[in-house]
Amino acid sequence: MNKNKFTLIELLVVVSIIGILASLLLPALSSARDKSKLAVCKSNMRQIQVAYQMYFDDNDGYYPTDSPQMSWDDRLNGYDGRNVPLSDLNSAWPLEKSLYNSEIYACPDDEISRIWGVDTDVLTLSYSPTTYMYYVNAGSINSSKRGITGFNWKGALDGYASSKISEINQASSTISTFEHMTEGRCLGRDDQSSVSPESFFLSTANVPHEGFNKSNFLFVDGHVESLNAYSTLSIDGGGMGSDTNTTGTMWDAHR
């Protein structure tokens, strides 16, 4: 009898040890992978901030607007490392996945398939600037849309507008850009590419980093934080706002 052979019991012991080691290592590997995706997402947002900064230099300090055919991300073309022809930027349709890529605009934790009408040849857009809506007749800003880019309203659409960075008084505690992930969020999607906090809080998909129960937020001063979404509704001096009234919260660029 060959004494070098493993017995069945010895093999079972080895298999059990391997199983125990795997059960210990897999959560650690999963956590490391989640942290890596979180870091890439933060890096994307910092690169968007760099594009904003260069855009400011050429546009008197104003954030890019949304408007028919030209989304805020379209307007960052050239500042963000892309070189999309103007004819494609001016199209009413999102950019085609078969021709371009999302580059810095797609979070690696964003796994939602995109579709525009029936078209799936579209690019993922994981981020949105905070929305702004100004009532011209009343001379006031909508309580839930107090962000950096949006439009004026005078009984109907009265032009597109955006905030000037020098007029935002609390840059270090004001959100400029956040994660927003739905199937209709496509790169180059004309004037519907920025959304309100109400839309953000409607979907748990906007807290994509599940292991951390957090979402990434880019602030006006350029830093990025991973925060529990509801903590962003805290009001300066105490109290809480809501998704329908963000006055005084981190979503308010006009406080």
UniProtKB/TrEMBL annotation:
<dbReference type="GO" id="GO:0015627">
    <property type="term" value="C:type II protein secretion system complex"/>
</dbReference>
<dbReference type="InterPro" id="IPR012902">
    <property type="entry name" value="N_methyl_site"/>
</dbReference>
<protein>
    <submittedName>
        <fullName>Uncharacterized protein</fullName>
    </submittedName>
</protein>
<dbReference type="GO" id="GO:0015628">
    <property type="term" value="P:protein secretion by the type II secretion system"/>
</dbReference>
<keyword id="KW-0488">Methylation</keyword>
<dbReference type="InterPro" id="IPR000983">
    <property type="entry name" value="Bac_GSPG_pilin"/>
</dbReference>
<dbReference type="InterPro" id="IPR045584">
    <property type="entry name" value="Pilin-like"/>
</dbReference>
